[in-house]
Amino acid sequence: MGGEVTTFGSFILVLFLAGYLGQQYLPPPKPKVIGLDLGTTFCSVGVFHSSSGVVEVIADEHGRKSIPSAVSFTSTEVLSGHEAVELADTNPQNTIYDAKRFIGKVFDPEVMQQESARYPFKVISNNGSAEFLITTNRTFAVSPEFISSRLLLKMKKMAERQLGVPIHKAVISVPAEFDERQRNYTVRAAHLAGLEILRVINEPTAAAMAYGLHKVDVFNVLVVDLGGGTLDVSLLNKQGGMFLTRAMAGNNQLGGQDFTQRLLQYTTERVRQEFGVAPTVKEDIQRLRQAVEAAKINLTVQTSVTISVPLHLHTSEEDPGAPAAVLFRTEIGRELFEDLNRDLFQKILAPIETVLDEGHLKKEDVDEIVLVGGSTRIPRIRKLISEYFGKEPNTSVDPDLAVVTGVAIQAGIMGGSWPLQRSSVDVRL
Ligand SMILES: *[C@@H]1O[C@H](CO)[C@@H](O)[C@H](O)[C@H]1NC(C)=O
Ligand SMILES: *[C@@H]1O[C@H](CO)[C@@H](O)[C@H](O)[C@H]1NC(C)=O
Ligand SMILES: *[C@@H]1O[C@H](CO)[C@@H](O)[C@H](O)[C@H]1NC(C)=O
Ligand SMILES: *[C@@H]1O[C@H](CO)[C@@H](O)[C@H](O)[C@H]1NC(C)=O
Ligand SMILES: *[C@@H]1O[C@H](CO)[C@@H](O)[C@H](O)[C@H]1NC(C)=O
């Protein structure tokens, strides 16, 4: 009798051990919840691997970790991301970008008119809501949330391909200034893509989480997000493990493309000085712009770059029909780039001062400064911010991937944890 119990007990113990050891040797479970950064110009998707505590930003089949936020319609297909951008030149009126600027917003007719004039595609008003008019072999209108849903679907598929499991749940980030309607329409876009949204988090909060600031003893965090076209500054305040947005300010006319434009003006002037005329051929101007953009990016790591661009200039007045092929070469030093943009860089401090004022804080009260957006790689901008605060900003996470990294961490928290996980993301949020 006693023996039987012992045998039975051993049997249980063996089962228990087998289960325990099995868990040790089984492959770790796949993340079930993805984190989505649906940006105005680029989107990314990430997951949190609870077994290793590592965030993986998922790459496409070419290894690219962000996809352009563009969707292009042809008579036979709807293309998203890089494939859509490839069609932007040949199919401009049906290639939609910047949909995030329109989602969930109600516009006055005049404002809508102005907005529409900025784009090669047609923006129409449906009782105050924006819609994009597409003309392939038929004409139809699509909503901003439909455009967003195609991008989200693309990212869902990238994640499914990488993880090898179907994905139905996600966490998504939105700008802190999005109102309830804009948030609702963003969630609606996810539903259209077959995704249930477990939580909507603010982009600056996500960026702070990317640095693990939800786990450490900080109170006031300032997030500076300088993207291609806009600057957003947020002052976060951590209370009971939760980040609250205490103040927001920004400049929607300041970003990386303005710095590129200054450099383009300068190089165009150099062409005029050297050859007597400015480039007029459309392809030349495009090539010059690309070279200048590449130079700007290189100048964040190198102190000097040489650009070299073949141009076709109408130098001869007697024969205006025949452009002369020339090679334009010039060296651009980092200091020159900084001089050309000095006044623009200085403008970054204005919204920082505004949020400190509104938050009733002195700059000494800011515990951590987090930089987001590609333009915050510019050394002069980092220096400006660190000199202003008298301390170094947090820059170890790629500023283009800080938001998606934080959203993926939040997705990991929402996805719950595995019994043996070594993750330290177990704080209350
Ligand atoms: C448009 O073209 C597609 C593919 O060529 C075709 O399937 C569709 O029926 C066409 N629609 C119209 C309205 O002509
Ligand atoms: C248009 O919007 C107004 C208020 O935003 C609403 O009252 C009205 O019902 C809407 N009309 C239609 C046709 O959707
Ligand atoms: C947003 O969605 C919630 C829940 O679906 C709803 O209760 C709320 O009225 C919506 N708000 C707006 C402004 O659309
Ligand atoms: C920028 O740097 C890359 C490699 O770091 C190089 O291939 C490229 O030619 C550089 N571009 C310019 C404009 O200097
Ligand atoms: C950045 O954030 C971490 C918290 O994860 C902190 O320990 C560190 O001191 C911060 N500052 C800098 C300049 O990296």
Automatic annotation (TrEMBL):
Binds UBQLN2. It is found in: Microsome. Has peptide-independent ATPase activity. CDD domains: ASKHA_NBD_HSP70_HSPA13. The lineage of its organism: Eukaryota, Metazoa, Chordata, Craniata, Vertebrata. Keywords: ATP-binding, Endoplasmic reticulum, Membrane, Microsome, Nucleotide-binding, Signal, Transmembrane, Transmembrane helix. GO terms for molecular function: ATP binding; ATP-dependent protein folding chaperone. It comes from Cynoglossus semilaevis (Tongue sole). The chain crosses the membrane at residues 6-22. Belongs to the heat shock protein 70 family. Its main location: other. This is Heat shock 70 kDa protein 13. Signal peptide: none annotated.
